[in-house]
Amino acid sequence: QVQLVESGGGLVQAGGSLRLSCAASGSIVSINDMGWYRQAPGKQRELVATISSGGSTNYADSVKGRFTISRDNGKNTVYLQMNSLEPEDTAVYYCNARINPFYALHWGQGTQVTVSS
Fold first, then answer.
1. Is the peptide bond preceding residue 101 cis, with omega within 30 degrees of 0?
2. pLDDT of residue 71
3. Which end of the chain is more exposed for a tag (fewer CB within 10 A), N or C?
4. pLDDT at res. 43
5. Quick count: other Cβ atoms within 10 Å of Cβ 111?
6. What's the confidence (pLDDT) of residue 101?
7. Residue 22 pLDDT
8. Grouped pLDDT means (10 residues each) for the chain, 117 residues
9. Of residues 36, 55, 39, the one with CA closest to residue 95
């Protein structure tokens, strides 16, 4: 059994910062790609950022230059540093990870981020 647990969400004013964390635990041999997605009310879930096991990163255009994804392989944890937050960033943020054995895709339960104007 594998669990992903997110933390760090909350309410922040526009221009502020938050740091999200997502820790994986359970029957883990290794972790490939990890990522953050978000879903705003009435919208589809969308990619925010991903990071490979080797540290290569990919970002949605809407967050480039403001958000930074990183990971600590020793702690099986992925982070999302969010700066210069905008009201449009308001959403539930989910982490996911490809976890071995079986290369299975796992999702966290989500954490709410609300940015007030």
1. yes
2. 98
3. N
4. 97
5. 22
6. 87
7. 98
8. 96 98 95 98 97 97 98 97 98 97 94 97
9. 36
- CB atoms inside a 10 Å sphere around CB 88: 11
Q: Whole-angstrom Cα distance, residue 34 to residue 17?
A: 21
Half-sphere exposure of 56 (CA within 13 A, CB side): 4
Q: Which amino acid is at 42?
A: G
**CB-CB contact of 4 with 28 (8 Å):** no
Task: Give the chain's length.
Answer: 117
Q: Amino acid letter at 93? A: Y
Asked whether the beta carbons of 31 and 97 are under 8 A apart, the reply is: yes
Q: What stretch of H or E contains 39?
A: strand 30-39
The one-letter amino acid code at 65 reads G
Please check whether residue 24 is in contact with residue 35, taking contact to mean a CB–CB distance below 8 angstroms.
no
CB 73 within 8 A of CB 100: no
Tokens 């992925």 — which residue? Answer: 78
